[in-house]
Amino acid sequence: MSRRFAAFVAAGTALAVLVIGSLIAIALGQAQPPKPAVASTSSSATPSATPTKTPNVNAPTTAKRPVPNPTAAFAASNKKVLFFSFDDGPDPVWTPKILQVLAKHGAHATFFELGGMQAAHPGLRDQVLAAGNTIGSHSITHPQLTALSAAKRHHEIFDGPRSTCFRPPYGATNAKVRADIKAAGMVQVLWDVDPRDWSRPGTQAIVQNILTNAHPRSIILLHDGGGDRSQTVAALDKVLPLLKAQGYSFPAMDC
Ligand SMILES: [Zn+2]
């Protein structure tokens, strides 16, 4: 009995020594001074571009199916690009007019479409794609996803327009919405410039807002559905040549 107890104590002591030893080793490892700055100086010229340029070979293995960043292909180049995006269509009146203006100026865009609008207006989706544009999902019925039950949220995200890009209606998002978007094989795409064209502030106000706020690689939010978009069409026709004169080109996002 006492020998067995002694063996038990001995084993316990050995384990404790092992654990403490490991902790000391970890602590020492963390206390080591940072590596010499040789590696970082070579990339110091373009610090912000480095993380997106090279795929991280040390990325955790938990990442399942990497969805491409829809603007990453343009991050490496020095080209001045702007990403125009149009939400809430396809609309039989306004989407063809937007397509016409884009084609007139040699521009492309990404259309975040509603599944309900696609079903109601078959053929428009193909017109958008045939002109060299891309399509993102904007859900099926344009609900505020953060206010829905899990089942309804899943349905709106998983059963909407097929794409690798998803823009939540109203930009309303949270951890659950983002998790569903990722699980559906998509990436969340919001925007950088919002001229609030849906509120019809006047053609010139839309133009001025874009000119003031657009920077290289900005994503610009406009609408080809949801009501009278004549100001949007007119503003697009005015602003594209002005931006082109500044050296911008207008590719569609990789969606
Ligand atoms: Zn919308």
What is the N-to-C order of secondary-structure elements (H for helix, E for strand)?
Answer: HHHHEHEHHEHEHEHEH
Domain count, please report it: 2
Q: Globular, elongated, flat, extended or rod-shaped: what is the shape?
A: globular
Which consecutive residue ranges, at least 5 long each, have pLDDT under 50?
Answer: 1-63
Distance between the termini: 71 Å
Would you give the CATH topology of the largest domain? TIM Barrel
Q: Number of helical runs?
A: 11
User: What is the helix fraction of residues, given as a range?
Assistant: 40-55%
Give structural notes.
- With 255 residues, this protein is α/β, with parallel strands linked by helices.
- The chain has two domains: 28 residues; 172 residues, TIM Barrel (Alpha-Beta Barrel), CATH 3.20.20.370.
- It is 44% helix and 9% strand.
- It is built from eleven helices and six strands.
- Strands 3-2-1-6 form a four-stranded parallel beta sheet. Strands 4-5 form a two-stranded parallel ribbon.
- The chain is globular, with a radius of gyration of 26 Å.
- It starts with a helix and ends in a 10-residue tail after the last helix.
- The N terminus is likely disordered.
- The structure holds zinc ion.
- The site of zinc ion has 5 residues, from loops.
